[in-house]
Amino acid sequence: MTTQIHSADRELVEAAAEVARTRCRGDNHTMAAAGRGRDGRIVTAVNAYHFTGGPCAELVLVGAAAAQGIHELETIVAVGDRDRGVVPPCGRCRQVLLDYFPGLEVIVGEEEGEGVRAVPIAELLPVSYVWADHQVDAQ
Ligand SMILES: [Zn+2]
Question: Of the residues 11, 14, 18, 58, which is catalytic?
Fold first, then answer.
């Protein structure tokens, strides 16, 4: 199931695009992300590239949101610098986002003639491993 994005999601895309345009400089910061909490607040972040596996903008955003007391994200989007537009999350981020926020919507870019749209995180990671299902005290 996919849904066209609403004005609140357009605002989120614009927030990420603004950070990508103004804050991404050099090779260390090339992606920006914006997320909206259940309370409507918007948080932004940029990636912290490092050859040892520095975190993507989405993962920095998870921590930045928590630091502001936002522990439930509703929607997230990532935008690349140099006008690359909306970029879908990498595999690692899909797994982390699914484990943290199973009900999250992810705004992804244009594909096969469709415009920018919001997709449930579970749809971006079919037949997924659910970490919580394999913890000893999960029974
Ligand atoms: Zn990633």
Answer: 58
